[in-house]
Each structure stands twice: as C-alpha cells, then as structure tokens.
Amino acid sequence: MTLSSHGKLENPVDETGEMSILDLPELALDCILERLSPAGLCSMAGVCTSLRERCISDHLWERHMKKKWGRIIGPSAYREWQFHIASSKDFGSCKLSKQKSLRKLLSIVWPSSWMKSKDDKLNNDNSFKHSSSLSVDSIMSWYLAIESGRFWFPAQVYNRENGHVGFMLSCYDAELSYDPQTDTFQARYPPHGRRAIAIETGVQWDRIRAPPVDTSPHDLHISDCLNDLRPGDHIEIQWRRNKEFPYGWWYGVVGHLESCDGNENYCLCHNSNTVVLEFHQYTRGSRWRCTMINRKEHREEGNEADGFYGGIRKLKSKEEISRWKQLWPREILE
Question: Strand (E) positions, the chain?
Fold first, then answer.
C-alpha cells in the first residue's frame, strides 16, 4: 500500500480481504488522506462509505482550497458562493443523491472511460445505497465548482482586456470562471455606461487577485491613510472615466510639491494639506501623469475630461508593490 507520485493511493483495499486500509490506526489513516491530491481524495471517496465520509470532510479540503484558490478568493467570492448554493436550481432542495454527487465530482477529474467502470461498481455496491448525500455547502463542493468552471466568482484583474493601453497598471473588478483545460480564466467585466459587458479569455493566474478591500467598484473607498502619506509611498487610487462607470484601482506614487526640491533633509511635503500623486507609466507632460488631492477633505475629485479620482490605499506589502512593478509597460504611455 503506497502513495503514487500523483498523490493517489495504490491498492487501498486488498482483494483477498486479508488487509484493508480501514485496519490502520486513525492517525495513520488521517496522515495518508492528508497527503492525497484532490483527484486522489475523489478516487478514495468511491471505495466505501466509511472512506467517503472521511474524504469529503472539510478539514481535508480546506488545505487544498487555500493552496490552489486562496490567493484569488476573498470574502466577496465566499458571499457569492453562499448565494449560489441558496438559489441555484441545479441543486434542487440543496441535496444531491450519493451516487449522482459522487459521479459528478469524479467526472471532473477522471476520463469518461474510467467513469463508466466506476459507475458500474457504484451501482453494484450495496454499501453506497443508503449513505448520506454530499452537502453542497461543503468546502469540497466549493472547490470542485471552481475547478470545473461552473462557478463564476468575483475577483480583480490587472491590466484588463489583455493589456489594453487604456488600462495599463490598473486593476478592475470582474467575474471569473476557471478553464481546467488551459489552466487560465475567463473574465466578464461589468458594463461601462452604455458599453456592453466585456469578455476576456485566457487570463493568466499572475493577473488575478482577491479584492484587497471589501468595497464595491461603484462605491467610494473611505481612505484611512491620508495623514500618513509622504513622498515615495506607493499607493492605489480609485479612478473612473465618468460617474456611470465603475472604479478601477490604479497604481501610483506620492510625489513632491512643486515648491520642494526633493531633498529629504528639507522636505516638508508631508506637512502640507496638498498631496501630489504621480503615475510614472505616463510621460512627463501627459495629463494623466499627475494629480493632486486634499489630505484633509478628500472625496471624489475630477471632471468629465480627466475622469474622477476616488479613494486611496497605501501599499505596505512588498509583494503588492513588486507585482505592480512586474506589470510595468515596455514603453512609457502618452
């Protein structure tokens, strides 16, 4: 009885009946199950009722959930999942039969030829006929709903629409669906004014993040960092073309006032009520290169020509700053 290189258990039950994995001590069995991949757990769930109950437990799937989806799944995605399982007609009364639920989850990770033989086994195995159904609010159900692409979840996409020049160094809210065939995502962006929903395919993992703040793209983020801002700080600021559009988050840095020569020993910019925000991805002289906000009374500021600037986040994580720098355009924008 060994684990394969893919994390699948080989020979889980001896056909002679002389040895069974269930004869192992509880701790040893738990250690084996914790080492299984999601596909391995799905396979083991088809062995017998006892193993099935163990293999679908939340504590085993929580680790897989965090490992694969944790970086791009946030509180808003969890709320959407709760709404999905409460209203989805696919789940009927929120209960699936044992055989149907097992067949459905196994079909995601196993070829159809294997599924036919597995179905025959399930149909002939009395141990499965009276077992409990798979709870749709389990972590396993959520994992497989994302993995299969059936569940669209809210997240944010850097440089939307395949790096369109009008969105460089920005991050916009979208609904995402995973494509297990290509290991990429499909993104649906909310409509901008009268513009139809934009759809982008082939979105790579490194362009996706969970929303860092729980603020709707249509709401002004309440800035709590304004008094701390000083030249050199890295920030994200909400911006939208007009008030019919949702906000996106744009990367920038805090600059010096025109009256300051930039000498750190004499700089007093942090004492001024005026804060200069610079966007170095744009060339000097561009109308998008710089804007100023009031530290004490900042709300949404702007006009129909230059757009509207909203709430501000100060970036404190080196990882966040590094990610923005990795997305830097090859050429300075106009």
Answer: 2-3, 9-10, 153-158, 170-179, 184-189, 198-203, 208-209, 234-240, 248-255, 274-278, 290-294, 301-303, 307-314
| d(C-alpha 239, C-alpha 159), whole Å | 14
> Tokens 């969970």 label which residue?
210
Contacts of 146 (CB under 8 A, 6+ apart): 69, 73, 153, 178
pLDDT in tens, 28-85: 777 777 888 898 888 887 778 878 888 888 988 999 999 999 999 999 999 999 998 8
Convert the pLDDT of each residue in 164-189 to its tens digit.
777 899 999 999 999 999 999 999 99
Q: What confidence score (pLDDT) does residue 9 get?
A: 47
Helix or strand (DSSP H, E) at 79: helix 75-87
In the chain, the largest separation of any two C-alpha atoms, in whole Å, equals: 87
Tell me the C-alpha distance between 292 and 300, whole Å: 12
Copy the structure tokens of residue 167. 């969105």
The single residue listed with the structure tokens 């790579």 is: 204
Torsion-angle region of 103 (φ positive above 0: left; ψ -120 to 50: alpha; else: beta): alpha
pTM (two decimals): 0.80
Residues 119 and 248: their CA atoms lie apart, in Å, by 48
The alpha carbon of residue 110 and the mean position of all alpha carbons in its chain are separated, in whole angstroms, by 25
The torsion angles phi and psi of 61, rounded to 5 degrees, stand at -85, -20
